[in-house]
Amino acid sequence: MAFALGRRRGIYIAITEEEKPLSPEQLSLFEAYDLIYRSLCALLFNYVPTSGHPGGSISSGRIVAGILYDAMDYDFSNPDRKEADIISYAAGHKALGLYAMWALRNEAIRIGAPELLPRERRLQLRMEDLLGFRRNPATETPLFKKYRSKPLDGHPTPATPFLRLATGASGVGVASSLGLAYAAKDYYADKAPRVHVVEGEGGLTPGRVAEALTAAGTASLENALLHIDWNQASIDSNHVCRDNGKPGDYVQWNPMELAYFHDWNVVYVPDGKNFQQVIAGQRKAMEIENGQPTAIVYRTTKGWQYGIEGKAAHGAGHKLCTDGFFEAVAPLMDHAEGILPRCEAGSQRCDGGASKETVEECFWEALTILRNTLRKNQTLVEELVRRIVASRARLDKAGRAPRENAPQIEGLYAAVDGKATSIPDELTLTPGTQATLRAQLGKALKYLNEQSRGSVFAAAADLLGSTSINTAGEGFAEGYYNAKTNPEARLLSIGGICEDAMSGTSPVFLPMVTMSVPAPPMGRSLLRSGTSRHVSTPSAAKRDARFPVSPTNPSCSFVLTRASRLARMGRLMPIRSLCSSCRGIFPSARSLHSHLGTRRTSGPFLRPRSRSVPPSWLPSSLVPTRRSWTVKHLVWLRRPTALPAYTPCAVRTEKARALLCSREAA
């Protein structure tokens, strides 16, 4: 019996050399821009010093330039505009390139159209902010303090304008980014914002990514565009995928095969260094209207024109101010005004990078030269400004608005606000009633969905019925959600038994109605199996120390989320952290600590590096007190709200199992 791959809904398109969407003048300007960008990447790695990932940042540069200046519909003046297209750096290690690209774009606007700059500085990423690359908020170097530079993490976080997600470890970003696409598609339907996801072939190898690709293909998530920087190099290998008949060191597929197998459209760009092909590929992808997500695969070279290529440029580069570094930036600096600071061999003024003040001074001198180079090229600046203005015009023209009967998240909050001690009749349990935890969870989710026009998606690993999670979808369309054929359904298949994809996507696209355990206020008791257990609240001083305002970002308060047994049963929420003020979602406690300037501590709380005033909105009733009674899942979403008494909860004590709990009346 012959074998043939079955027909799919997705299609395959290969871009040819004949396709030339850019005029010769436009192509020349894009080339000039990329030279500045690649030089800036080299400067960042050199003066940090020697930190970051120059190779992947350079190989993806032309891809991201095409997205920002040709493909995306967004409003530069308003990075938080809800209906705008989204860009997500799933390849978090390319943060060096992200910051370089953002700073150049901001600089072009500052030179050519300063009136378009966002009014709040936090919504900009300036050239001065590059002094904060891989620096922490406590940095005391003179220029960092003088220009009030932002501390820029080694991986992207929502503190960076236009980013909604924190990404880092391979496999995390793709699933979370597709969660954004789910949310946008469900809310805006046919006019949904596109979600542009930037990743490399190495980042596709984790199993979670395959599961997420399966989910998106099955759900016909047509607003998802995955841009794959296929440079074939990782930390340890220069032959990640099977290619030209040679088995791969890691996997036996190439990115086109992986995406097409999971029912994605595939647009192959054979030369990702060719701007004509890059732009043609992106435009072709956005013209496809078959309802399936699209992967654009660009064949690139890691570290192209940097002097170090392949795996040697992954997380490594030229040593501080060596000949290799100066050769890498020579094509730009040979025509620039000014000369880069350079010490005689064997007598570096910074003592090999030990003098941070000296390194910073040289770095700023180099950035000033690059800034002046961009300022001199007025034709390039005008073209960049024109394209950024055009992106906003396209967004305005699109007229994106929520679909009819779109989920109403405010209805969910209205269902719980001020009702922490009252239980709806639909969920009331009378004394002597027998109920399972999972059944009550399903009923609570159903109630919240009814109050919010379906703001909650639910998924389980082929266990919807046995976990009672399917109850959340009752009253809505039957079956699994499909953006094209069944958009009203509230149950997600997520590729079947794909727990990793559920945990990857759920923190983003779910309205995050996860179960929490509020501790009883002083004088109340916890009713468990017919017996009372009194839990006192801590002193105000202890509470102040536990719940500070972020010392790094004063506008951001926080609570760390923790995964409970209850949440895992329904696969509604993995371990995730969410900043309750800036709405940033962080894939790990570490990334939230970095955002907030805090340090780790045991238990579900964070302690500040410096004592500060607690949030005024923090209810004292949400402060657990004893090691023997711990809240395993505590969550703040979008805006703080007390959780209702009818919320099922799991309580762990030293001697007791997790049981269905309710609160005793005052």
Share in β-strands? 5-15%
What does the largest sheet look like? 6 strands, parallel
SS-based class: alpha/beta
Fourth-tier CATH superfamily name of the largest domain: Thiamin diphosphate (ThDP)-binding fold, Pyr/PP domains
User: What would the average pLDDT be, to the nearest integer?
Assistant: 79
The CATH level-2 architecture of the largest domain is identified as: 3-Layer(aba) Sandwich
Number of helices: 18
What sort of overall outline do the alpha carbons produce when their principal axes are compared? Answer: globular
Question: How many runs of DSSP E, i.e. beta strands?
Answer: 19
Helical proportion, percent range: 25-40%
The low-pLDDT segments are 508-583, 598-666
Q: Into how many domains do the coordinates divide? A: 2
Give the terminus-to-terminus CA distance. 73 Å
